[in-house]
Amino acid sequence: MADELERPEESSETHEHDDPGAHLPPPTIWPFAFAGAVALILVGLIVSTWASAIGIVLAVIFGFLWIRDVTRDVRAAPEPEPVVAPPALTVEEGELSEPERYPRSKFLEGATLGLGAVIGGIVTVPVLGFAVAPAFVGQESPDVDLGPMDNYPEGEWRITTFTADPEKGDVTRRTAFIRYNGLKDEVPSYTILFNRCVHLGCPTQPQGRPGDEVQVETSKATVTLIPTEPSGFGCPCHGGAYDIEGNRTAGPPVRALDRFEYSIIDGSLWLGELYAVAEVEGQGADAVAVRYRATDPGVHVDGLEQYLYPITP
Ligand code: FES
């Protein structure tokens, strides 16, 4: 009958979709290798740019191999034979046409990939944010007014204690050892060492008798100055020792004491950003050191160890 719904004859070839595993990608290790490479990139962002670079190269290689495995079936499939269009369905007036059908294997394939992408995003995005964001927002700078330059006589050390962030209060109290070195090329030169031990972060102490404390009111907060004549600096926690320029001389510390940048504004000494040094050559205004990004105690900033951290040969 012309009004009857005419259906194409089903052939045995159409039953290939009945196998739910027919279109699933074969098991492969590359997703795990790719995830490991991404982890290496993230770790490298914190530890070393070299590790990140190696991670990127590995991620590209493993990603390529993963895609190659997933698409192997597609690439290996023979050219489809020309399909003869089935006779059009005739539909009675008012009757809905039959909905398009998708094989279950396609659904499972898409759901697996989609679920993997969602889980990967949930795991990766927060870690990436914490690792990368500081590079864009910048390091916190103390930006502290330490008072008039006259408070720092040439060649003398002052144990200087200040509040790095007055809004946060005493939890931001810090101590630096400051010595005015005189003029260098007509520019005032200061040595400003952070007292935090670069082994595990204990407060180091000057090896010398402290003098009388002086309180100085500055534009930011109250600064405490204690004169001293140290022969070096020592850490009471594990016996770490540093010379007068902050170089490690004994014990477990892994580098020289960290230093602060500084600037002179309207005759006052202002503290700048903290930075790390591996070793200082020379003394006072003639001291020379390679400057590294501020990093945690216990972290090497140069040599082979910087790539092996936290493994210490
Ligand atoms: S924390 Fe200073 S030597 Fe260990």
What's the topology here?
Blueprint (H helix, E strand, L loop, with lengths): L29 H18 L1 H22 L1 H5 L27 H34 L6 E5 L8 E7 L9 E12 L2 E8 L10 E2 L7 E4 L4 E7 L4 E2 L6 E2 L5 E3 L8 E7 L2 E10 L13 E3 L11 H4 L5
Antiparallel strand pairs: 1-12, 2-3, 2-7, 3-4, 5-8, 6-7, 8-9, 9-10, 11-12, 12-13
The structure holds FE2/S2 (inorganic) cluster.
FE2/S2 (inorganic) cluster binds next to loops.
Explain the overall architecture.
By secondary structure, the chain is an alpha+beta fold. The chain is 27% helix and 23% strand. It has helices spanning 30-47, 49-70, 72-76, 104-137, 305-308, and strands spanning 144-148, 157-163, 173-184, 187-194, 205-206, 214-217, 222-228, 233-234, 241-242, 248-250, 259-265, 268-277, 291-293. A 5-stranded antiparallel β-sheet has the order 4-3-2-7-6, with no helix packed on it. A hairpin with a 4-residue loop joins strand 6 (214-217) and strand 7 (222-228). It is elongated, with a radius of gyration of 34 Å. Residues 1-18 have low confidence and may be disordered. Bound molecules: FE2/S2 (inorganic) cluster (FES). FE2/S2 (inorganic) cluster binds at residues 197, 199-200, 202, 235, 237-240, 251-253.
